[in-house]
Every structure is written in structure tokens, then in C-alpha cells.
Amino acid sequence: MRKAIKLTLQVPDELAYREFTDRLLAIYRKACRVQKDKRLSAAGRVSRVGDLDDEILALCAPHWVLELPPLADGPANDYRLLVNEVMRLLLDQQLLNFVTAEPATQPNGKSEPVSGTNNEAERTLRGAAAARKTGRTNKTVVGARRQTIIVSVLESLRVYLPQFTLGDVMAEINRWWQQGQSCFTTLLTKMKLKLSEQSTLDHVLPIPDGS
To answer: CA-CA distance, 112 to 173, in Å (whole number)?
Structure first.
């Protein structure tokens, strides 16, 4: 949606971009209503998602079937890439999974509906980023890494601990020291997941040579 909106802002007089954005937004809003409709059974939601998939196909297919080659950088090429991306996600059945997915149960026992966007994750990170900018702190890579790790641990504990208080956080961290293993490692083992050889943080904020 953000890419579609960006196109309409870049070329406000282009009717095709505006219609594409309006129809895509309308489909997304329908999907949100279907997800929240308590009258629908699981099979009913699956059926409604099929109808929404057909709407997306009707929206994208006329442009997608042209199989246009890469164009010069600009809104026209961005539109081509956007249509191709939406169609790829549609064919891989990755667009409207949030409608039919069961509510996600967090480690702290709370159950939340699966969101159709990543807005919550971005809002979670926004506070720390704003504080860093306002306080003019952690301008070095090492400092930024340190704060990123601390914020990540605290926000992860927020969805892990039944009660997120300073006392509970300190008690949990002290338990890690005593047992030599964090609750996150325990959870990974329980879910039979493996850590990647290199952390995402090392890709985003690699430690400078000599640090």
C-alpha cells in the first residue's frame, strides 16, 4: 500500500495509479472486515479470501500479462514492479493469510489477532529511535548496537512475561545468569528452531574493524 500511495503522490495526475491504489486499499479494508466478522466460520473466511483473491487478480492481471521489460527508473517502472510483486505474493498465497490465520498466542499467554501490516513492529521501534535522535545519543555504531540489543531484549520480554514490571524483568535476567540460558534460548529449543550463524544485527550494524 505504501508503494502504491507513493506512486499517486509522485504522479497525482496519473489516473491508473490512483485507481490501482484506491482499489487495492478497498480490498485490504474488506479483508480486515472479514477477519473481524465473528459470524463467519473458518470455511467462510477461506471462501471470502478466495473472492478477494479474484478481485486482486482482476486488478493486476491486465498489466501483469503484458510482461513488460524493465523500464528506465521512474514511476512507470515502479508501477510495473509493484504489480509484479502483488501478483507474486498472490500466487504464493502470501497476501491475505492474516484473514484466515488463528490468533497468535504469545509466550505470556495473551492471544492477539494476526495483523495485516507491520505497523505494530514499527511503532515498537519508533520510541527508541525518537529518543536516540532527541537525546543525540549513540551516534557511534557500538553505541547504536548496545541500545538496539537492550531495546530488543526489553520489548521481547514485554510479550514473554505475564507481567512486565521492573521487578519481573530483573528477576528473569537474574535467572538467566544463574541457569546460563535465557528464556529465548529455551523457547527456541522448545520450538526446534536454530539460530542463524550470523545475527541480523551484524548485517545492519556491523562492528567496525578494531572495535
So the answer is: 26
Q: Which residues contact 104 (CB under 8 A, 6 or more apart)?
A: 111, 112, 113, 114
- Residue 56 CB coordination number (10 Å): 20
- Cell numbers linked to 158: 514485554
How far apart are the C-alpha atoms of 204 and 47, rounded to whole Å? 41
Q: Are 79 and 17 in contact (CB under 8 A)?
A: yes
Phi, psi torsion values for 104, nearest 5 degrees: -85, 125
Q: Is 140 helix (H, G, I), strand (E, B) or coil?
A: coil
Q: 16-24: list long-range contacts, CB under 8 Å, 24+ apart.
A: 16/79, 17/75, 17/79, 20/59, 20/79, 20/83, 23/55, 23/59, 24/56, 24/59, 24/86
Q: How far apart are CA 15 and CA 202, in angstroms?
A: 43
Q: Which three cell numbers stand for residue 174?
A: 537474574
Cα–Cα distance between 122 and 62 in angstroms, integer?
Answer: 34
Tens digit of pLDDT for each residue in 7-63? Answer: 999 999 999 999 999 999 999 999 999 999 999 999 999 999 999 999 999 999 999
The SS3 assignment for 111 reads strand
Residues 6+ apart with CB under 8 A from 151: 125, 128
The partner residues of 111 in beta bridges, in order of sequence, read: 105
Q: How much is the pTM?
A: 0.67
